[in-house]
Amino acid sequence: MRKVVAFNDNWNFSKNGVDTVSVSIPHTWNNIDGQDGGNDYYRGTCTYTKNFSKPEINDGERVFIEFRGAAMSAKASLNGKELVSHRGGYSTFRADMTDILEAENVLIVEVDNSANNAVYPQMADFTFYGGIYRDVNLIIVPEEHFELLKDGTPGIKVTSKVDLKNKKAVVTVETWHNGKEVLITVNDETKKVPDKAEFEIENVHLWDGLDDPYLYTAKACLSGGDCVSTKFGVRDFEIDSEKGFFLNGRSYPLRGVSRHQDRIGLGNALTKKEHEEDMDVVLELGANTLRLAHYQHAQEFYDLCDEKGLIVWAEIPYITKHMSEGKENAKSQMKELITQCYNHPSIVCWGLSNEITASSPVTDELLSDHKELNDMCHKMDSTRPTVMAHAFMLEKDSPLIPIADIASYNLYFGWYLGELEQNEEFFDEYHKMFPDRVIGFSEYGADANSRFHSSKPEQGDYTEEYQCLYHEHILKCIEERPYLWATHVWNLFDFAADGRDEGGKKGENQKGLVEFDHKTKKDAFYLYKAAWSKNPFVHVCGKKYVDRAEDKTKVKVYSNCESVSLMVDGKLVDTKSGKTVFEFEIDITGEHRIEALSGDCRDEMTIKHVNESNSEYIFGGSGNVVNWFDKEDIKAGFFSIKDTFGDLMKNPGTAAIVGKIMAKASASRGEVAEGTKDNKALMQMMAGLSFESLLKKAGANVISPDQVKSINDALQNIPKEG
Question: Which of 61, 274, 355, 692 is catalytic?
Fold first, then answer.
């Protein structure tokens, strides 16, 4: 009989060999310093120690210790003898303790999240927490037992093949163990076999996404009493380059969000409670897909995805920077991901890498490593495709893209660089070039600090209002392109990114639809709820934008109802019919109570007229978006900052001026400008942008208004031909 004993309590923790404190698992030492963007962010080795008595075991029984996640590398010893070493911070690993156990025991676990050149991730826009941040268990099994060590296996693997026309399925169950025979049970049918059995299910009950996420159970038992079981779903899916994703034979457009696993104050040391709370937010939003980025997530969360019917993209942290010495680690992390997550019906693809060319060129080595990783995935799992997420600057005809079965792009036109319309242009051009390739939208987003507001939002101002405009545009872009196999907002939640200091917060990426507490929803959250959720509601945007200096103000309402009425101080102003976004304009003279109504749905806010704009609503107190010139300030027939980057680079005189400024902007951000001119995709994208927009994105802290005026004066001395 298998026994699983929680082993989370009564650990002693030490950083740098000092300041030993008592802790419970899950635990991370970066729950504060990894989230505040300070210089004290600690990446190094820390030690966990546990003293314990030998558990009661019967003759022949074996005792294994299970770590569900220790970041990023771990080395454990028991009573002075090495027990296990593991490299990779997101997967389960185990060790057999039996032969080292004594009456009283000392277990020492050294966990290391320091920088190195062999364990992924090493460069990415999120905090690399350290610690034993998921559960630790003791697993006591009979002498005859299922495999526990190889790649953290659950010991049982279920593969289903569906015949939709005849409503039946063939289910194959494989097991790994050290016994002679095993009893395998599926759907009340039991077979006695050496290790593998096949079952036919008539009138099969399909796992059908959000509509009906039905789960079967497969159970395997050995004669000595050890048993393992797993839930599984029977489903069929396909992906069409023109029509997108199909689930069980019907069109099922995948529209959802990405998720990082951390939370303010807790870091990545989450319990089942936090995972369940996150899932509640996903379900309220109405998303039907999740990209679980950029690493293997907790089994508890994959279980929730199975139970609730979410379609999942699972991936490893092979991200941003290719490392020549990281090949084996990427393969190891992928083996563990597939082995440990194979039985989850929610998962439909394995992610090979994310934006791997962001700081690495496409070399023969990078291509070869991806091909090897891709082939390994297909060998381990013939039922799921592979996928990669590419940075926007990767050439559309790059030889890297067709290595995986399907592709997606991370595009931030309208936020980091470029104009919103370039998102549509990018996908339409790609789809025209490669109509038989499957393409998706794996990341898109705009940062918003809910303290900042504007009646005239602009790119780069970090206001909730601009985040809303951005997502309204992208939502329309997505709805008009059914060929996008899956789309994922970046991100559902704000998350820790230790290297960031922007938008009024240190150490955070603020692209979330929900704040870092995973509770406070930004206005943009309700835009997607209006588009995806079936539960009627109305939401008035701008509740935190109380003080307004304009005499007329716009009131925006998000709703999935067909019509919305607006009341001001108890009086009906207007009723509008439409879809998702409802906009009204009202006069404001003092303090007003605004109500939105539709049927039984209601929401309200209070705003008030002020004589001067509230500086607390503006990032930096005076704004980071600079309007440098009016039209009359520009001399016709001569170049200016209003001209496009492409046109300025065509003229030798203006190109010299522009080149110096772009080099300064790149250097100020620690970026490498070298090689930018050789990236055709990046240069093509930048060519259509006004130089003014590029300068604005650099920010007034890099290029001051006085410097911009000097640049414009210099450009205005160079006449245009003709």
Answer: 355
